[in-house]
Amino acid sequence: NAGVTQTPKFRILKIGQSMTLQCTQDMNHNYMYWYRQDPGMGLKLIYYSVGAGITDKGEVPNGYNVSRSTTEDFPLRLELAAPSQTSVYFCASRAGEWWETQYFGPGTRLLVL
Amino acid sequence: TQLLEQSPQFLSIQEGENLTVYCNSSSVFSSLQWYRQEPGEGPVLLVTVVTGGEVKKLKRLTFQFGDARKDSSLHITAAQPGDTGLYLCAPQQGGGADGLTFGKGTHLIIQP
Asked: How do the residues of chain B divide into helix, strand and coil, expressed in percent and rounded to 5?
């Protein structure tokens, strides 16, 4: 049972480059989330989705875009990488109701130089 | 904007000792979750508390939700090196699809 998988595990980008962080879940969950975690900080919500074709902004969406064409996949796009986007990015999924467990992927470490 | 504080920020103790970490806020919450995050991994849910005054036990871990549902504590009895990690609280203010709001966490190190 893979759960939530993320690729790549680590990436170095130059300022202005773009990239897509991949996230896939095999639990048939409706809700999916992207968070970023800066050193010494808790996680902050970037974007979330309640199902295929539906996405919404979280607390820190600027500089990012998402899409949800299937239930399984929820990629996060960085168009013009900036040093402020250096962080660890976590994808998570949840089956449905608010009290249910949110399952996190192992994270993608991004360094923008 | 809710103010969410976790304390202490860092804690290093010897194996076998007891400890308590706290999650405090100025807001009232409908529920609260505690997660543990190990280095290089994503957070893993430990418990969800819903009712004011609720106490839940998970082996050596005891979680309590404050009577006013503004705060929570996590007590670990006879800490073990395997308890080392970042403990995050994530309160919730209602239903819906919104993602979680996390505190900065308590970094816990249990030395053998």
From this structure: 5, 50, 45
Alpha-carbon dihedral of residues A58, A64, A66, A72, nearest 10 degrees?
-80
Q: Are A85 and A63 in contact (CB under 8 A)?
A: yes
End-to-end CA distance of chain B: give it in Å, rounded: 40
Residue B21 touches partner A, C-beta closer than 8 Å: no
- Tokens representing A21 are 């962080």
Q: Which of residues 57-96 of B touch A (CB under 8 A)?
A: 88, 92, 94-96
Residues of chain B with pLDDT under 50: none
Q: pLDDT of B54-85, one tens digit each?
A: 999 999 999 999 999 999 999 999 999 999 99
Structure tokens at B38: 């190990």
Query: Which chain B residues touch A58 with a CB distance below 8 Å?
Result: 99
Among the partner residues A4, A35, A50, nearest to B97 by beta-carbon distance: A50
